[in-house]
Design brief:
homohexamer, alpha+beta, 5-stranded antiparallel sheet, 4 helices, about 30% helix
Amino acid sequence: PTLTHVREDGSAHMVDISEKDVTARTARAQAVLRTREAVTAQLVQGALPKGDALATARIAGIMAAKRTHELVPLCHPLPLSKVTVDFDVDQPEPGEVLITAEVRTTSRTGVEMEALTAVSVAGLTLYDMIKAVDRAAVITDQQVIHKTGGQHGEWTRHD
Amino acid sequence: PTLTHVREDGSAHMVDISEKDVTARTARAQAVLRTREAVTAQLVQGALPKGDALATARIAGIMAAKRTHELVPLCHPLPLSKVTVDFDVDQPEPGEVLITAEVRTTSRTGVEMEALTAVSVAGLTLYDMIKAVDRAAVITDQQVIHKTGGQHGEWTRHD
Amino acid sequence: PTLTHVREDGSAHMVDISEKDVTARTARAQAVLRTREAVTAQLVQGALPKGDALATARIAGIMAAKRTHELVPLCHPLPLSKVTVDFDVDQPEPGEVLITAEVRTTSRTGVEMEALTAVSVAGLTLYDMIKAVDRAAVITDQQVIHKTGGQHGEWTRHD
Amino acid sequence: PTLTHVREDGSAHMVDISEKDVTARTARAQAVLRTREAVTAQLVQGALPKGDALATARIAGIMAAKRTHELVPLCHPLPLSKVTVDFDVDQPEPGEVLITAEVRTTSRTGVEMEALTAVSVAGLTLYDMIKAVDRAAVITDQQVIHKTGGQHGEWTRHD
Amino acid sequence: PTLTHVREDGSAHMVDISEKDVTARTARAQAVLRTREAVTAQLVQGALPKGDALATARIAGIMAAKRTHELVPLCHPLPLSKVTVDFDVDQPEPGEVLITAEVRTTSRTGVEMEALTAVSVAGLTLYDMIKAVDRAAVITDQQVIHKTGGQHGEWTRHD
Amino acid sequence: PTLTHVREDGSAHMVDISEKDVTARTARAQAVLRTREAVTAQLVQGALPKGDALATARIAGIMAAKRTHELVPLCHPLPLSKVTVDFDVDQPEPGEVLITAEVRTTSRTGVEMEALTAVSVAGLTLYDMIKAVDRAAVITDQQVIHKTGGQHGEWTRHD
């Protein structure tokens, strides 16, 4: 792609989106928490020391999506119109949790970062709640899966 | 481990740390951004559209560490005494960036979550700055590497 | 009302408002701080230990309205176009303070939560400033009084 | 009590607590959400349009406690060592929800405001989740119930 | 100008902008950090104790612009579409740093406060990074330089 | 001074203060808002369009001091034990406002940045409230005046 936003001195800046169209845009992102089957069993049973991990991580992810522009320095503040965070326990493999977030806006730029931030903070929260029983758990494969809207239109990851 | 914090109804709560000792504690976490060699070359040259990615991601990671307790619902607010975020470009493989954070506190609980949050937000920021040239980049292997201090003392990941 | 937003698994989510119309919307909320007449007298005279309670609580309420979506997990971020917070001392009864907030937006959803958050934080701030002289004070009757705009149009509380 | 903190000009200020002792302190606060029995039934069944209201409100309350000093202008930032938020549905009366928060710190001042902020934001969140079915619900009787620690020691509300 | 927003009781409020037009608006602000030539030399060489001061201050300024409405009580939250922060070292005089911010929005009110907040926090950050070598440095001449858009149109400072 | 904190690669980092002593520390900072006498008259009379400027700016400054570490990337979070913000209208010259902040902590590092941030945001807030009548107003001479505590002890600015 042409990199129209590069400044002469290479310095960081929040790029100008004022000429872009206000359109409906969506993004879906995923991440995987890799722990052990004994732990995902506790997760489902609500038997973890700090309590109900999935509900807590879902709320954390939704709230984080709304604060993306506070965390990621060059992101624009966007009026999010929908955020969901979901978990598939023992997916894609036993002992793993697949985290999926979907975000929607009607705005001048896309919400990939908001979807990624939601899965990221949901993953951090799950780790926080299982680390007493599995400090070695890993958050992995954090990526954008699908987006719609904007100048470049629909995009789906092909692996 | 004994799960002394489980509540009878399994509900989420910020566990009581008031009886734990105030001691020096450190944590180190890592993550890997997986992109392409053409992109890591642009990263090093400062030729990315939004500007200087490494400096921006470093600051984002440091600032995020300080806000961990705002993002992760059951984390305690802690007086961080040191935060560093570093990048090894084309490590562990060409076309990848190894992100490492170190956090230190003198407090009643550990800073693993702060170190993980720093690498997480640094990774999100790098992705934000390269997504115009590689939307398919992945953040992976986000994990705690080492910790010291506290009741359980030193711990090092063995893979 | 039909509950079109229920998800199959009952999990929490920020509901999709992208199909709703952008219209002018207002909300008014109230709460009552119940203390003693000796305290409302000090409030009016500016004789409380931490200083000017009404001005401080007004600013706190206005600022909190802008942060509603950070506090209430499933609220959408909205571009507020007006916020006022007012106090009627010794109303509705002597020794009480009636707190009223009005919020206006032009957006896809209403601002009842923003008006309620403003009165709530204004009330907390008043309590903070009188608690040295009346720890037993109570914040009560926090409620939405009136709203306009949106699909359901005008609504006024009838008690 | 003697009001040692009043400034000559009556202006607001964050009072000096540097000479106060660092001690263990706790506070418990309560509030009541007054709605209808049909609504508390939906609350328990998880049948509300935005999803799982109790888990969401609990997390919101815990997170808000940590941000008390950002919301209430003259509150000191405190290192909270424990926060819990609990709900008793159909208490104290059918169709009501009793919200209770407990906060603990080891610090130079008390955590009454943190406990009150937790119940306040938990109550706002419950209202947000039921307002599609009961816009007229009221949050009431928000008050400190009990505190320990500090110069004035233990205090229990007597009604 | 006519002061149409004054309330009868003179109390603070976030004024109603709902009747104003949504138009493109820009603002440029400046400030000067006054230190010594030995320090600006270290700044350019990246030899300051806390590290790369210009990149850090640039990011701090951009991030602060997005939080203007959280800091300045009566500012409206605005969807910023562009933020830049730039530095001219040894300008306007040797041993000084000229800080310039530009902000753009498409909204109902102007972004002068956002531009001023960006230069202000960029200046604070530069001071933080040089204060180990020049505690006596001063931030001065913080002012709006130029604005466009809105009811009053273009404005340029004339000194 | 010896610059013990410089990293080999010159990158930004939050320096380690864990070995520094926990001691009482204070800082005082000042800034001047330069406007016209007609405006300072309105300020004192409470006749400005957005309302009571001094009370609003005082609260804004106090609240900003508590958020210094969120704004200035390499500042450590500190438990502030006192914050005051004061105004001298028509000082040091007619048509000016002298803004003074005092901050106190018991901690491992000083509070110069907190005091500067308080005067900075108080100044921004005053400007916001007078800009309808004097857009050309300037904030100037923002500087640390005095500090106590810490390794380097007392320091007073000499001009």
